[in-house]
Design a protein that fits this description.
Length: 255
């Protein structure tokens, strides 16, 4: 399958940012790009690798800004922009993984994904997740990792979903704070848009809520799932009230 290339405008739409932000990244030499016939083009697979790595390392203020930029598009994909209820089920959480090595935990978490019945080729998924970890660890400060395949493909899954595993023993996984990891999300997304939305949301949850402590202490999958749903709900903006019927745009509540 040939690699799809994007123009600057297509890239801005793909990343949910303004063209000027893409142009700034180009000037900074941060974006992978290629020249063809005097035109600057971007290979989508290379951009998707870059975007995933960048999201995992964004500082708090930048991550919050990017998450807000994505919200309108997220609302088109998920009711009320809530991802956890749509993508994660308590049946897909295992809080007692016995893995003691990087390879073993990848195998166990992919096995957890396989048990959903939504993975077409578990071996291919495991190899792609391992390749992604070799490229750059998805471990974050705080004892968690956001594992995913290197590219998001519609042929890989029946639907998009997330699984979560917690190991009994902490595993060195390459986190920037040097801390070993016990919480392992696996993002199984059928396209890059859903993947970026989900990755940004989970990173923001880890940064701005106490969810990591709650997941570390959760006694069972149901408690862990409820904690994630509640933490996400606390991040989302309140829904705007629906205007009363018959009221004009200039109507007042006291009328």
């Amino acid at each position: 399958m040939p690699h799809r290339t994007l123009t600057i405008d297509e890239l801005a739409d793909h990343l949910h940012v303004a063209r000027r932000h893409v142009e700034r990244l180009i000037k900074e030499g941060d974006l992978p790009c290629t020249m063809r016939g005097g035109r600057m083009l971007f290979v989508q697979d290379e951009i998707d690798d870059w975007a995933s790595q960048r999201l995992l390392r964004l500082p708090g203020q930048s991550l919050d800004w990017y998450h807000k930029r994505m919200m309108p598009a997220t609302k088109l994909l998920f009711p009320r922009a809530a991802l956890i209820p749509a993508l994660l089920q308590s049946a897909h959480i295992d809080l007692a993984l016995t893995a003691k090595t990087r390879a073993a935990v990848i195998g166990e978490v992919v096995g957890l994904a396989e048990r959903t019945g939504w993975v077409f080729d578990p071996r291919e998924l495991r190899d792609s997740v391992a390749e992604r970890e070799t490229l750059c660890s998805t471990a974050l400060p705080g004892g968690l990792a956001m594992m995913h395949a290197r590219q998001q493909r519609p042929f890989r899954f029946e639907r998009s979903f997330i699984v979560l595993g917690r190991t009994i023993q902490a595993i060195p996984f390459g986190a920037p704070d040097g801390r070993a990891s016990r919480l392992f999300f696996l993002l199984c997304c059928s396209d890059e848009d859903i993947h970026l939305h989900t990755l940004a949301r989970l990173c923001l949850l880890a940064r701005k809520t106490k969810i990591l402590d709650e997941l570390m202490e959760a006694p069972d999958a149901e408690t862990a799932h409820a904690a994630l749903v509640a933490a996400e709900a606390g991040l989302l903006p309140a829904e705007e009230p629906v205007a009363a019927k018959g009221k004009g745009r200039k109507g007042r509540a006291s009328e």
